[in-house]
Amino acid sequence: MLGYRVCASILLPSAVALPLNTPLLSSYDYIIVGGGASGLTVANRLSEDPSVTVLLLEAGPADTGEDIVMIPGFIGHDIGGKYDWNLSTVAQTFLDGNARSVPSGRALGGGTLLNGMLWSRGGREDYEDWVRLGNPGWGWDDMLPYFMKSEMFTPMRDARTAEEYSVREDRSVHGYAGPVNVSYPNYQWNSSISLFSGLAELGIPIAYDPNAGDVAGASFLPFNLDPVTQTRHTARRAYYDSIANRPNLWVATGQTVTQILFNGAQGNADASTAAPSDMFVGQGSSPGTVGIFGDGSMLNVSSLPPSPSGGSAAGPSSTLHRRLLVTRIWQTRKTVLSKTRRQTAPSGPSLNATGVEFAPNAQSLRQTISATREVILAAGAIHTPQLLMLSGIGPASSLQALGITPLQDLPGVGQNLQDHMQVWCWYPYHNAYTSNPTELNTNQTFVDEAWHDYWSSRTGPFTSGAIDGVAFPSLPHINPLAAASISSLAASQDPRAFLPPTTHPNLLAGFSAQLSLLATALQDPRRAAYELINANDGDLTVASMRPLSRGSVTLASSLPFTPPLIDPRYGSNPLDLQVLREAIRFNARLINTTAMSELAPEQVYPPVGATDEEVEGYVRNKGQTEYHYSGTTAMMPRELGGVVDAELRVYGVANLRVVDTGVFPLVPAGHLQAVVYGAADIIKAAWTSSRVAPAPFESSSTVDSVATTDPIVVSAASDPGTLSSLADVATATSESTQRTPTADVATTEAPIAVPTPITDVVVVTTWVTVYT
Ligand SMILES: Cc1cc2nc3c(=O)[nH]c(=O)nc-3n(C[C@H](O)[C@H](O)[C@H](O)COP(=O)(O)OP(=O)(O)OC[C@H]3O[C@@H](n4cnc5c(N)ncnc54)[C@H](O)[C@@H]3O)c2cc1C
Ligand SMILES: *[C@@H]1O[C@H](CO)[C@@H](O)[C@H](O)[C@H]1NC(C)=O
Ligand SMILES: *[C@@H]1O[C@H](CO)[C@@H](O)[C@H](O)[C@H]1NC(C)=O
Ligand SMILES: *[C@@H]1O[C@H](CO)[C@@H](O)[C@H](O)[C@H]1NC(C)=O
Ligand SMILES: *[C@@H]1O[C@H](CO)[C@@H](O)[C@H](O)[C@H]1NC(C)=O
Ligand SMILES: *[C@@H]1O[C@H](CO)[C@@H](O)[C@H](O)[C@H]1NC(C)=O
Ligand SMILES: *[C@@H]1O[C@H](CO)[C@@H](O)[C@H](O)[C@H]1NC(C)=O
Ligand SMILES: *[C@@H]1O[C@H](CO)[C@@H](O)[C@H](O)[C@H]1NC(C)=O
Question: Locate the Glucose-methanol-choline oxidoreductase N-terminal domain: which residues (predicted)?
């Protein structure tokens, strides 16, 4: 394959004609590693400045708007599919000894292609805790403008439905001009009405806006959903499609970054060598931990007829539209390149990130590209620490053990792994009077009607996932005595008690600081202790929002395509099991309320009469991820085991930042996409200031306040995923002089890139598309 060194513009006009995967320059101002939620946010924001060049490298492909990605009714079905890394944990010895799946997005858009589409920000005090852990500028009031800025919020469609489903929006905390469409499905499963009434009977607050900072209670969460087409709004649609024609932004898919380069040199010789045996295969998903639906109902996708229009939910592939822009882009790129660039003043740490090495797969020769300003890691909380360690940044002794030369001893890299462990519980509803997602599995008439409704009017069950109404109870809400007991046990816990004996003293100090904040949170009636995830069929899953267990991501090998060892150490801190035990006890009271009794629920798992020990045993058996991996490159002082400072700069390395969920020092009580969009955006201020003046983050945050920055302009016509723009796309396509089938476009995602000598500043690599 490597023999095919050809000029891409002759062989593959369509590939060259696309901004996605056009040949790369030898050097960029900024290189972003990973094109998920955080990476695309940063790419969008940095490339607003036309005088800088930005390259984003994403390991996975670009989606083609498949129904399984776009239609909310298919939530959960692409787990383990072609946009998943297929990772697994090591044996979870504090649970039942089995491994667990770790679904993670591997595509342009990352986790936002796989996720449950729930949109929540966590609570006010969650961010004050970040500040308390040494991060000025990250409080709720600092974050809120960025949370708002990310949203194009559409309120519930009518007041009556809002009233019925306890949706009480606070319009002042939402944004209306941002890139992510946030709205409600055109269909609600009506058993959640009974759920909210039942929760209210037991004194849980309902009917408030869950995104206004006070989370504790029950609420109907909005979705990252296009309100008109009722399709998933991924990070790629929100932050990339609308700006794909920026002449200073390069995005390459199918390219895995294998090493960060420092001071122009490679540290890990193993990573640089093409290795035929180093095939990425993931660990495979683990049986019994199927994901979003727990063990509950799963729609049989193959029972559905083809979509009536023969098209996709999203409309024609968005890539078609962009071909017209090509000539202009190449001309402008040349202009951009000829400009002189400002350079960062040489000062600070002697270790300096100067570029990256990357390859489409293990067997390919590595390529290098340099970054004149910064390398920004956005590969997610699992892969960012892996890449740092592969590059020599991490716990020195573990790196040495694998033959990697430690360039910076940072014991926190890969440690402090947090996740919301969730436990599926099962109380099937036997009253057919309410709508129930299990019908998608059992009643073909229901499925056919639902499918027809979706395609004819974008209404019905396929506009929603099974999960919609949820609750975030505090411990005092459900059991004041247990709240006091669990909280005081947490406050008096020896931080060493449940961490591995080898834990570095800095990490112990960090965990100690976290422990006292968590003890406070667990007894606060205004703060969520767990999430009750209602899948409307009797599945009342509970997930711990304040995990005390800490896990790790470590290297299995010095080879970059070998998956890392993921050990969340679920349940290692026994207080996590106690919180979930209380949550499960509360489920039994909940189904016993007048409102819930009408659904005729039957308690099946855990069984009626189970003792505390048996319930905790059940938790050990069923505990799995809620997909909220975070904390592995924590933003905390170095003395507390932190990896990045409050400007997200990696300690001891110049020109290297991390922007993904790994930087969250404590996982907030919410779902993470809205949080990471805000967090990745807030950091633009640091770049702005470092180029204006070398001022600290606090004093510069006003430079980039929402009021003084141009909003991200999103033109409806440039988002070909919307129904309203179908006409535009059709026009653009018919005008295009370089027509090729969409299939060509789709296959450009995994080119083998061949290193060539630099003969022209614009084209340093040629690309050969592999047709398989
Ligand atoms: C199954 C599932 C359900 C979820 N449900 C919800 C939900 O309902 N609501 C919610 O808010 N959140 C949910 N989440 C979480 C949310 O989607 C993630 O927290 C979010 O996507 C994290 O953003 P990120 O930028 O940190 O990482 P990601 O979005 O994971 O992006 C990281 C990207 O980096 C790429 N990458 C990794 N390594 C490399 C490398 N070496 N070189 C190049 N590229 C690389 C990956 O392929 C990926 O595209 C869910 C996640 C999953 C997986
Ligand atoms: C994950 O598994 C699916 C289904 O087998 C496959 O299509 C996909 O390529 C796998 N992902 C990776 C990164 O290997
Ligand atoms: C799914 O539907 C297909 C087609 O109707 C059928 O052949 C298959 O048996 C079904 N699978 C399950 C698990 O019900
Ligand atoms: C980092 O390296 C680049 C490229 O060699 C150089 O221009 C820059 O001054 C260096 N920065 C620091 C902080 O050492
Ligand atoms: C719930 O919806 C179903 C139809 O989907 C309807 O038959 C039923 O009357 C509704 N129940 C309530 C309590 O509104
Ligand atoms: C199947 O669904 C249809 C359409 O919603 C409904 O009329 C019918 O009662 C359902 N059948 C059963 C057995 O629930
Ligand atoms: C359910 O309600 C009945 C009657 O009010 C009560 O006797 C019983 O203890 C309740 N069970 C639970 C688990 O709360
Ligand atoms: C949100 O969806 C609407 C309706 O399809 C569309 O007009 C709008 O452009 C979308 N917003 C963004 C930011 O993409």
Answer: 105-128, 380-394
* Ligand 4 nearest-atom number relative to CA 347: 13
Task: Report if residue 267 sits inside a domain.
Answer: yes
Could you tell me if residue 506 is inside a domain? Answer: no
The bound ligand whose nearest atom lies closest to the alpha carbon of 114 is 1
Residues β-bridged to residue 422 = 543, 624
Cα–Cα distance, 645 to 134 (Å, whole number) = 9
CATH of residue 386's domain is 3.50.50.60
- CA 70 / ligand 2 centre spacing (Å): 19
* Cβ–Cβ under 8 Å, residues 510 and 412: yes
Closest ligand, as measured to the CA of 183: 8
Ramachandran region of residue 392, left (φ > 0), alpha (ψ -120 to 50) or beta?
Answer: left
| Whether the CB of 82 sits within 6 Å of ligand 2 | yes
Answer whether 405 contacts ligand 3 (Cβ < 6 A): no
Which domain covers residue 743, as residue numbers?
Answer: 14-117+232-418+630-771
Nearest Cα neighbor of 48 from 246, 321, 194 is 246
CB 200 within 8 A of CB 110: no
Atom nearest to 588 CA in ligand 7: 13
Give kind and range of the element (H or E) at residue 533. strand 530-534
Among candidate residues 344, 375, 371, 351, the one with its CA nearest the CA of residue 263 = 351
CA of 79 to the centre of ligand 2 (A): 10
Supply 234's token pair.
């991924």
Give the span between the Cα atoms of 77 and 88, in whole angstroms: 18
Q: Based on C-alpha coordinates, what's the Rg of the chain?
A: 25
Q: Is 683 inside any structural domain?
A: yes
CB burial of residue 708 (10 Å; 0-12, 13-18, 19+)? exposed
pLDDT in tens, 198-249: 999 999 999 999 999 999 999 899 999 999 999 999 999 999 999 998 999 9
CA distances from 137 to 20, 143, 553, 652 (A): 35, 8, 28, 21
Atom in ligand 8 nearest the alpha carbon of residue 719: 14
Q: What residue's CA is closest to ligand 4, atom 11?
A: 346
Query: Are the C-beta atoms of 406 and 580 separated by less than 8 Å?
Result: no
Task: Please tell me the residue having the least CA distance from ligand 2 atom 11.
Answer: 85
Ligand 8, atom 10, lies closest to the CA of: 181
Collapsing DSSP to helix, strand or coil, 12 comes out as coil
pLDDT band, very low/low/confident/very high, at 727 (cuts 50, 70, 90): very low
Query: What is the 36 CA–ligand 8 centroid distance (Å)?
Result: 20
Three-state secondary structure of 268-314: CHHHHCCCCCCCCCCCCCCCCCCCCCCCCCCCCHHHCCCCCCCCCCC
Distance in angstroms (rounded) separating the CA atoms of residues 364 and 358: 9
Q: Is the CB of 86 under 6 A from ligand 8?
A: no
Phi, psi of 617 (to 5 degrees): -65, -40
Ligand 7 center–CA 199 separation, angstroms: 15
Q: Which residues line ligand 4 (CB under 6 A)?
A: 343-344, 346-348, 352, 354, 654-655
Q: Give the ligand whose atoms come closest to the C-alpha of residue 585.
A: 7
In sign, the C-alpha dihedral spanning 745, 746, 747, 748 is positive
pTM score over 0.90:
no
CA of 764 to the centre of ligand 4 (A): 22
434 in a structural domain: no
Ligand 5 neighbourhood includes 459 CB (under 6 angstroms): no
State the pLDDT at residue 141.
97
Give per-residue pLDDT as tens, 35-60: 999 999 999 999 999 999 999 999 99
The tally of domains found in the chain comes to 1
